Amino acid sequence: MSLSFEGRVVLVTGAGGGIGREYALAFAERGASVVVNDLGGDIKGGGKSSAAADKVVEEIRAKGGKAVANYDSVEDGEKLIQTALDAFGRIGAILRDRSFARTSDVDWDIVHRVHLRGSFLVTRAAWNHMKNQNFGRIIMTASAAGIYGNFGQANYSAAKLGMLGLANTLAIEGRKYNIHCNTIAPVAGSRLTETVMPADLLASLKPEYVAPLVLWLCHDQCQENGGLFEVGAGWIGKLRWERSQGDIVRQKNQPMTPEAVRDKWDKICDFTEATKPVSIQESLQSVVNVLSQVELAGEVGANPTAASASASGINPTEAVGKKLPPTTFSFDHTQCILYALGVGMSTKDPDHLRFLYEGHADFSCLPTFGVIPSQAAMMGGGLSTVPGLNIDFTQVLHGEQYLELYKPLPTSGKLTSEATVADVLDKGSGAIILLDVNTYNGNELVCYNQFSVFVVGAGGFGGRRTSEKAKTSLPPPRRTPDAVVIDSTTRDQAALYRLSGDWNPLHIDPSFAALGGFKAPILHGLCSFGFAARHVLKQYADNDPSRFKAIKVRFVKPVMPGQSLQTEMWKEGNRIHIQCKVKETDAVVLSGAYVDLHPASNASPENLTQGGGLQSELVFAEIGRRIKDLGSEMVKKVNAVFGWEITKDGRPAAQWTIDLKNGSGSLHKGSYSGKVDVTFTVSDEDFMEVVQGKLNPQKAFFSGKLKVRGNIMLSQKLEVILKDYAKL
Q1: Catalytic site residue 156?
Q2: Active-site annotation holder among 23, 71, 156, 209
Q3: Is residue 270 classed exposed, middle or buried when 0-12, 13-18 and 19+ CB atoms within 10 A define those classes?
Q4: Closest CA to 314 of 469, 393, 424
Q5: What pathway does the UniProt record associate with this protein (predicted)?
């Protein structure tokens, strides 16, 4: 089926001869109404005549076509467009074709005025008309001299490449209005080339060998946008940029030197496995990758543009169970208050004062502050030290988060976090790394986090898709929410939240955010996480942080600072299912989420620690009898002191110490003044499951049900204590 331009209006500049004339004739032949623009100058840009344009108009009309002439300079862009509007009522396509022979430096301004500024003025005059009619096609005519350079044509080359840059930006800005802009670099005979090309070569470079490409690019069926094409002699080729993989030549906190550049020069210039960026985001992504590589891995030679990890880069057997270097976090009331402000608390709400004023009688730390001490394990580059995780850390996305508290967080102190790779899963399109982080206040376990991170493109290594160690997200009940809270974030919410330790410029720097494809800096996912958690805390726990047990969320979409967060809640016993949306767009940002609360109780922590009503108390009583009977023998076999912290409903309920190192052994209930070699934290229910053989201790450990600190290898000697569990 032939391409028709019936109903379309085409403006061709420089259409008095050569390629421009061919464009005008071809469009008219296929039904377009054509504005034939030509100043009528000579090949050096001098003079003015209407003859060239008039002649082409006569040719078109003689064949039954529709055309009008225009003799204005392209610097009078409004006049050109007005001619089209007066004659045909609209403007659909603009073709820029006008060339100058080599000129001296004195003519720089003339060349730029006609080529670059002229293209700008004509296009600007037509732009709003094209937007209003939701259609437009623009063809810029560049030159090989602009693409490759040419001796003696500095002014001409600069102007022509400038037209390509203009076209590329117009393609981006016009896309949503169905305005497409492409660039061609033709080789064809014209008034400009007839004096410098041999006659036989000129004959093979006919303008009619260029026009078909232009007609296709201008047709409404063609969706090409932002392309660059060389064309001539019946051949058409598309050009694109190519970039070497490059190399990083600096290290974290080290100066960058010219010697490092010299030593890496061959790699920098090696186009093996070159990339082909097609947008400024792709082009500048290497800078983002470099920042991440230097910060997270700190390795010279890391490849900033490499594809995500290959299958051979992931080895779960090596990685799972590996510990990351421990991190410490020192803080006082200032950090607690700053975090509360960062997740939207305000003195406008009297209930918030206990989290904002250190002099308040019940001054407390928000429960979700528990993610802050642990995040250093993710941000400090610890994962790069784990064998079996040879991955591109710039492709790591924060997918899900679980936080569980074992007691209310202190408002000051020094916390230590120990991270372990719990599991690595193969999702095909990527890998999921489960990172368990236990945070201690001295020897006391305060909270547990599980970071679920997705590594784009790192799948396909043949691993398992699921894990019993993962804290799973859960869908909400299928009914109307029991409660809904709407809370506005401020324009400065991300700027405020980042002061709690997440310094990623994605959340503050507009230019950096643009590299990631965002119109503006986005809110931290863990900030939305904090908003949703405090909504639940107020709605169902009267802002009592001791009622908070755990929270699980899946991050779905980003939030822009200033948008309103709508938290929908469904109460199911002590579990509150939540879903968080952006109110303005109805987009879900947190899904599969829930908050677990401790039941309201008048029981004091002191009463809970006595261990009354716990099943485990009977087991420890039996262990105590065994020690009395066989203590000396057990001491010889074990030679260690074991501490046990038993919890009930997430709160400390009892403390036991089994001393099988000193004397003939002993059992202690409550606080223990001596040194403990290894401490186990487990719920009363899970302890009984382990003792009865229903729950494998190793599985309990990797699923987070059994937490261990100290000399973990001593856990192998538990069998001596717990064997013959039926009698226990």
Answers
A1: yes
A2: 156
A3: middle
A4: 424
A5: Lipid metabolism; fatty acid beta-oxidation
Distances (CA, A) of 437 to 274, 370, 401, 635, 661: 39, 11, 11, 32, 30
The total of other beta-carbon atoms located within 10 Å of residue 198's CB is 8
The whole-model pTM stands at 0.48
Mind listing the pLDDT tens digit for each residue in 159-170? 889 999 999 999
Structure tokens at 528: 């939305």
User: Which of 119, 126, 121 has the alpha carbon at shortest distance from 143?
Assistant: 119
Task: List, in order, residues 6 or more apart from 592 with CB less than 8 Å away.
Answer: 400, 473, 474, 475, 552, 553, 554
DSSP string over 685-696: HHHHHHHTTSS-
Measure the CA–CA gap between 560 and 488, rounded to whole angstroms: 11
- Residue 59 buriedness (CB in 10 A; 0-12 / 13-18 / 19+): middle
| Residue 635 and residue 664 in contact, taking contact as beta carbons nearer than 8 Å | yes
Q: How many CB atoms lie within 10 A of CB 94?
A: 29
Joined together, the tokens standing for residue 504 give 């990623």
Residue 177 in tokens: 């209005």
Residue with tokens 């210039």: 269
Say how far apart CA 155 and CA 45 lie, in whole Å. 14
How many beta carbons lie within 10 A of that of residue 388, not counting itself? 17
pLDDT in tens, 19-63: 889 999 999 999 999 999 987 655 444 445 678 899 999 999 999
